[in-house]
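Example for tutorial group B:
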């Protein structure tokens, strides 16, 4: 398996870490190779080169039966393309696991002629292409109708401690701070939320355009109600997921965000955009929990509605936890991957 370092930041790292902790690697004799990590440009180049040479070495020894690529868009895809080409040379079965929220945009608008050819080559030649939702499945088939696309949802593990003592007016955002995640729309919704809920607090956990977001909060005179936490992990994240009132993610592009799955498994109600795999994850409560990207007024109205109705929040939380158990639990998802690996190994 090749992807970004599991100990790093971001969705792919979180997904791989979840698989790793659940024992998927041991069960299927998986060696993970890091192709990317944070840090300086020199460090990133060194990590990629080391990982790439390591992969070639194992291929030469005949030790690789299946290559499972965890890829996003842009630079991530370009790095994985090189691994894919080597796998083809050695006649190794390949799985391309597509995570990039802007993959379709990357292909249709941000790629040159040669990059488009690279994308089409990978999608058409991979043994399996994994989409994170049925909607993404359709989009990938729209890019390349020859692709063998299947849907496997992102996994989430049940928390060690499931008890939650929720506060009444804590709104939580977890993710990259910027336009794509809808962070600025969330801040723009705050004046209307504060009118009906003067004690409300928005806690923003993530890195990105922090200063721009902070400045917007000042301009809208809501800075006293907005707190920037930086990147949140471990016990601090658990504490937030167990104490917040709502998780908010009004994104413009998504795959299947881990922050939503983390909220669901903790029984934390969610309000999020009608993009990517989000509607499938929140299918049990679409009316109350789904907004259109950029609709700040509807976002504020839905926040106010859920803050005012304790029974509705409890009902949504129960339904979301049930959905996780049925569709997103790491044991369910890991078993689907194991079956996929076995199918490829049987062919060999």
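The residue assignment follows.
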């Amino acid at each position: 398996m090749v992807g970004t370092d599991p100990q790093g930041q971001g969705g792919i790292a979180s997904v791989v870490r979840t698989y790793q902790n659940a024992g998927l690697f041991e069960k299927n004799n998986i060696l993970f190779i890091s192709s990317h990590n944070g840090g300086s440009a020199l460090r990133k180049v060194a990590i990629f080169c080391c990982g790439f040479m390591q992969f070639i070495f194992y291929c030469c020894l005949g030790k690789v039966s299946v290559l499972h690529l965890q890829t996003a868009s842009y630079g991530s895809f370009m790095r994985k393309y090189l691994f894919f080409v080597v796998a083809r040379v050695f006649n190794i079965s390949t799985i391309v696991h597509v995570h990039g929220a802007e993959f379709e945009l990357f292909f249709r608008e941000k790629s040159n002629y040669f990059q488009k050819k690279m994308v089409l080559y990978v999608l058409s030649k991979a043994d399996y292409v994994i989409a994170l939702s049925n909607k993404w499945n359709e989009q990938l088939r729209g890019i390349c109708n020859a692709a063998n696309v299947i849907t496997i949802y992102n996994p989430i593990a049940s928390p060690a401690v499931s008890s939650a003592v929720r506060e009444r007016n804590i709104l939580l955002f977890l993710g990259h701070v910027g336009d794509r995640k809808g962070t600025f729309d969330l801040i723009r919704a705050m004046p209307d939320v504060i009118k009906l809920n003067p004690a409300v607090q928005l806690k923003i956990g993530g890195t990105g355009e922090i200063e721009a977001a902070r400045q917007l909060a000042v301009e809208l005179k809501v800075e006293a109600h907005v707190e920037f936490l930086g990147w949140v992990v471990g016990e601090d994240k658990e504490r937030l997921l167990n104490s917040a009132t709502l998780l908010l993610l009004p994104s413009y592009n998504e795959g299947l965000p881990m922050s939503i799955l983390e909220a669901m498994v903790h029984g934390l109600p969610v309000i999020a955009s009608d993009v990517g795999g989000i509607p499938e994850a929140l299918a049990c409560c679409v009316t109350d929990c789904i907004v259109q990207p950029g609709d700040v007024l509807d976002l504020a109205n839905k926040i106010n509605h859920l803050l005012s109705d304790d029974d509705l929040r409890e009902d949504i939380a129960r339904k979301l936890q049930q959905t996780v158990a049925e569709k997103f639990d790491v044991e369910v998802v890991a078993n689907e991957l194991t079956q996929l690996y076995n199918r490829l190994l049987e062919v060999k």
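The domain at 170-328 is CATH 3.40.50.2000 (Rossmann fold). Compare this with the pattern of hydrophobic and polar residues in the output above.
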